[in-house]
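pls read this stuff:
=====
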Amino acid sequence: MTPNAEHNHFVKIAKQVNLKPLGGEYLEDKFVKRNIDKLGLGKISIFRGKNKNGKGMFIHRKIIDIKKDDGKKFSEIKTLWGEGFVDFHHRILKSCSSEIEIFDASSWLMSKGRNPKEYYLYFLTLFVCHGILFENLLTDGYEKKFTNEIIYPAIEKIKKLFGIKPLIVQLLPQDGEGSKDWYRYWTSYPDFVEKEIEKCLPNNGHDICMKKVNGSQKWKWKKVKIILQKKL
């Protein structure tokens, strides 16, 4: 679990309806850079507000060696400064969201199968009566195949077994659902996460500055000393 905008929205909703938020993790799963959800954990997106056209502005900070760590288990990965990858996400989560209880479901999930087609049936069955799953089931874009080939078939099997569907509630607003800007916002992090990364990175290796590109101001990576960033 990690305190991005989606997570913070989930905790807020759970509190509003007086439900205890619970987050399951699969720490023995592998980091795969072609999976944009997993990539977003290693390449942190920071929300910097909106421009005059109402578009979101973001900067990105890599906290792991994405190429080197591609294919490794989450539990095995270290950040660029040597802290456990999972430990870092838990640490920033604890600093802003102590309400949620998290647990590692790796052993249970692996006992049900080695791929989502095998274990998702058991996972979704938990929400027949033991809990409510807050999720957006996207039927287009990068999640279309997963939703149509894994989630929907599992839901139909559960319906045949129990006579009812699992309790799944829409988590995020549908306005712009599945678009690039929608995804970028809900997977982004608040400013304090960037500050925490700044503290941890060796020698503050890469800082952010504004640079003119084709006549307009855009956020760009540039290797500068920290004192320059403070002057901007």
In short: Residues 5-226 form one domain. Confidence is low (pLDDT under 50) at residues 205-232. The first strand starts at residue 22 and ends at 25. The chain has one domain: 5-226.
